[in-house]
């Protein structure tokens, strides 16, 4: 279900969740917007294979409890990191910048 044309939301409506991934720290550089779904490779995310994801934040939506799962290898393999809020710098938070696949989960 989608938001009504006037922008209002009806009770019980599920809203999609989107995340913005940046190739620079502090939400700088190229932006890649991902909606709920699975992205097994960087190219599936619309990124070049040389792209390094360094920060990310969710697009704020009401009634949403989104999460994003970052994987160190393609096809959702390797180390998995689950995040539920924005990250100004993956490296500064102790995470590796090596992200090759992403799974975006939405909520209510």
Task: Please characterize this protein's 3D structure.
The strands form 2 sheets. A 4-stranded antiparallel beta sheet has the order 3-7-5-6, with no helix packed on it. The protein has a 3-stranded antiparallel beta sheet with strand order 2-1-4, with no helix packed on it. It is built from no helices and 7 strands. The termini are close together. It has a single domain, classed as Gamma-B Crystallin, domain 1 (Sandwich), CATH 2.60.20. Strand 1 (18-22) and strand 2 form a beta hairpin. Helix content is 0%, strand content 29%. Residues 1-14 have low confidence and may be disordered. The chain is globular, with a radius of gyration of 14 Å. The chain is mostly beta strands. Keywords: Repeat. Residues 17-60 form the Beta/gamma crystallin 'Greek key' domain. Belongs to the beta/gamma-crystallin family.
